Amino acid sequence: MTEEQHEIRLHVNGVRYSARVPARRLLSDCLRHDLRLTGTHVGCEHGVCGACTVLVDGQPARSCLMLAVGAARYDITTVEGLAAPDGTPHPVQRAFSECHALQCGFCTPGFLTLVAAYVRDNPDPGEDDAREAVTGNLCRCTGYQNIVAAVLRTAEIVRENGADVPEARRPDERADAADDAQPAASPKEGGRP
């Protein structure tokens, strides 16, 4: 018996996508397999590890715990959507690079989206605050020291530059840059979002 498919429209990184998915398709699987946005990683598939963290209306959420059909009414930001439209790295991307806050890189996309939202809401964290902020995401390589340093460095970059840490790019800010990145398997519905 063939599973019933649902036509959904998702707003991801400022681009509107269409996909046909079964009702039980997880947002993480839809992002990776249907939209080919493979920056979101899938680890435990139980909402424990944080590798699949994306921003849903600017708030961190485990995409392995959310159904794709339920995500249609939200603005989703994946790790691919953190950089500026011109490709300038987001402060959190810069900080993770400067602080060597990754090793194998598997958990990194989840940390980047989590920390981007955290620093936006907490622009001057202390070390204990930064450590507490990342406790929900698992890393098996780094021992967290450099990740905590990267949280603090992200906040420092934002304060130094007066930069606004985006919660999610608005459609008109991302559309031009994302048009070229549109996967062939899930064409954008007519025109700009």
From TrEMBL:
Keywords from the named record: 2Fe-2S, Iron, Iron-sulfur, Metal-binding, Oxidoreductase
Composition bias, Basic and acidic residues: 160-177
Chain spans, region Disordered: 160-193
Domain of life: Bacteria
CDD domains per record: fer2
Every 2Fe-2S ferredoxin-type domain range: 6-82
InterPro entries for the chain: 2Fe-2S-bd, 2Fe-2S-bd_dom_sf, 2Fe-2S_ferredoxin-like_sf, 2Fe-2S_ferredoxin-type, 2Fe2S_fd_BS, Beta-grasp_dom_sf, Diverse_Oxidoreductases
PROSITE patterns: 2FE2S_FER_1 (PS00197), 2FE2S_FER_2 (PS51085)
Short name of any one Pfam family annotated for the protein: Fer2_2
PANTHER family: OXIDOREDUCTASE WITH IRON-SULFUR SUBUNIT (PTHR44379:SF5)
Record's protein name: (2Fe-2S)-binding protein
Organism (species): Streptomonospora wellingtoniae
